[in-house]
Every structure is written in structure tokens, then in C-alpha cells.
Amino acid sequence: EQVIRKIAAGEVIQRPSSALKELIENSLDAGSTYIKIHLKKEGMNMLRVIDNGCGIQFQDLPRLCERFTTSKLSKYSDLKKITTFGFRGEALSSISYVSHITVITQTRGSQIGYKAEYKNGELVQSRSQDKKTNQDDQIKIIPVASIPGTQIDIENLFYNQPSRLRSFQKNNQETQKILHIVRCYSINNPQVNFIVTQEEKKLPLFICKYSFNANSLERIQEIYSIFVQKSFLNLQINTIIDQSFLLQLEGCVSNLNYFNKVKDSEKNIKKSNFILFINQRLVENKKIKIQINKIYKEILKTKDHPFIFLNLILPPECVDVNIHPSKKQVQFLQEDLILATIMNNLKTLLMNHLC
Ligand code: ADP
Ligand code: MG
User: Fold this and answer.
1) Which superfamily is assigned to 2-208 in CATH?
2) Which residues form the DNA mismatch repair protein S5 domain (predicted)?
3) Distance CA 124, CA 30 (A)
4) Structure ipTM over 0.85, yes or no
5) 2-208 matches 226-354 in fold
6) Chain segment 159-201, per-residue pLDDT in tens
7) What is the atom index within ligand 1 of the atom nearest the CA of 152?
8) Fold of domain 226-354
């Protein structure tokens, strides 16, 4: 069973950036307005996420990394917070099978924090405790002085998967992947502060500060230092599909000016030019990407890739619940109708802009 879990976990958590994505989503679900990420060796030695969210209840700590442990099902009716991707309570559990997890957490209004460590789905004795083993879970959890919020450390990722460990030791692209994820989440969550630091570097790798009334477009400007005012259009859709469900979409899409400006500027724009969130989760969908590129080619007569940021909200039942968290490609029901609606709105927006 342990071996099977270890292999399955390695499929859910394929690389440091996929572990980080799960941690950021948890911090956002906890209502955080501040998320700090700290890396040691591209996240392989340590990936630390500190947030100022609601914290984890003491009574939830013993089973935190057990499979299917989630505190979120009771909020199932809360559309904004829902992850529709089935597989609840799988992330921390999976991470614990391929790393060593340390959690320090304090709930809001509480005077004291707690520290707990996990391996292979289970609460383990803290490395700071003396060796006299204590079987009592309550005693494995150590009271500590802390502040409200949660800090989760993932150490020695893939220590028990030698071949994967080797492949990441050779590769040094992971920090870029991590930064890409943070950029995307900070664009989709403009009210949240994000900061990324690295042990080996004095200056932060990334900072996005909160500003009053900040929106996604301002974040795009801040992150890519492109002047967005005349280079982007706002795409907004609020419509009932098939007389049965609500499709909501907010997005920023580049216009013709954008292509002229971006030609010789930063190259990381090119890599991050298609950002899609469905129900607050960063996902990929090849069909949408292809159709959008086609529309740009048709209407703006350009072969360059546009910059697209879309935040799509659909009823949970529309998003395929059988999709596994490791599969970033997401499918949804009524896909043709949903895509047609988005593409028609985009076409109209671009045409009006040209006139
Ligand atoms: P899920 O997010 O699907 O519930 P996870 O394995 O990602 O499952 O997390 C398990 C549980 O741990 C969550 O339901 C939540 O109660 C708690 N949790 C994890 N991270 C945080 C955090 N940063 N702040 C508050 N609670 C958290
Ligand atoms: Mg989660």
C-alpha cells in the first residue's frame, strides 16, 4: 500500500512547482491576503509558503496529511471557493509521501500556534523533540509562539525517488516555472500580496504589493512592465448558457498595439501569454488556446501570440470531476457551447476595437 501511495503521489506532485501550486491554492482558500514563498535550491531542498490566512484548527492537525482529509466540503455551496476537480484532500497527503512536511499554524484570534511534522501521510515526531518516542499524537504536536496564519515547509522533495531527484538536480529551470505560477496567481488575485525569496539571493525574486482597488490589468503592467492602458481590452461575459447555467468570465486580452510594443521587450511575456483560470484554479485547455489564436489571426491579421488572461467561473457540475489534479488539461461539459460563447464575445470585442 505504501509503495502504491508513493508512486501515485509522485504522479500528482511531479515537480517543485506543482507542489507550490497546491500550497498557494490552499493559502488562497484560507483567505490569505499575504503569501510569501521562500526557496532553497530551486525548491528541491526546501519550499516554504507563509500566509496570513485562517490557520488550521488544532483538532485537524493529527490527520492533516491523511488522504481525502479536507475541511472544504462543508463550503460546497460557496461557488467562489470551490475546487471542482473532484479529488479533495489529496495534495498535502501526496506531498507527504515524497517529502518531509513541517506545518506551523495559528488560527485567527488564538494566542498560541502549533507545529506538526508529517511523512507518508502520517503525523511524525518533530525532529526538535528528544528521541523518547511518544506515540500520543497530541504530544507530537508542539505549541509554539507564532502569529495567525500558516507556514508550510516542504523539505527534501523526492528524497525517496532517486531517479526523479537526479533529473531535478541536473535541471535548473524550476525557479522559472515557480515564478510563472506565482505571476499567474498574482494576476488572478490582485488583492493579495505575493513575495518570492531565495536562500541564495539577497533580493527577492518577485514582489507584488497590494494596492487599493488593484485589478488584474495593473498586475500585468507591474509584472511585465508593459504599458497596458492602450494595449489591452477588458473582456467581460455574464450570460446564461443553454437556458440552464451561468457563465461568468473576466479577462484582459491584448490588442493590436500590444504586438508592436512587445516585439523587443521582455521574453518572459512570450512564455506567459496564455493564462487560464477556471473556478480560481490555473489550468490548461488546448482547444481554447487554438481557437483564440485563430481569431487573432483572422481579425488582427497577426501571427504573433496574443496575451490572454481569462478567469472563467462555471458551475462546478460543468467541470469534469474525473480529471485528476496532476492533469493540468481540464475538460468541461457543454464545452462547445461554452467555447462558442467566449469566442463570439472575443470576436465582437476585437472587431469593435478595430472600428
Ligand atoms: P484540499 O485543499 O483539497 O482540502 P489539501 O490536501 O490541499 O486538500 O489540504 C488539506 C486541508 O488542509 C485543507 O482542507 C485545509 O483544511 C488545510 N490547509 C492546508 N493548507 C492550509 C492553509 N495554508 N491554511 C489553512 N488551512 C490549510
Ligand atoms: Mg488544496
Assistant:
1) Histidine kinase-like ATPase, C-terminal domain (3.30.565.10)
2) 220-351
3) 24
4) yes
5) no
6) 999 989 988 887 778 999 999 999 999 999 999 999 999 998 9
7) 23
8) Ribosomal Protein S5; domain 2 (3.30.230)
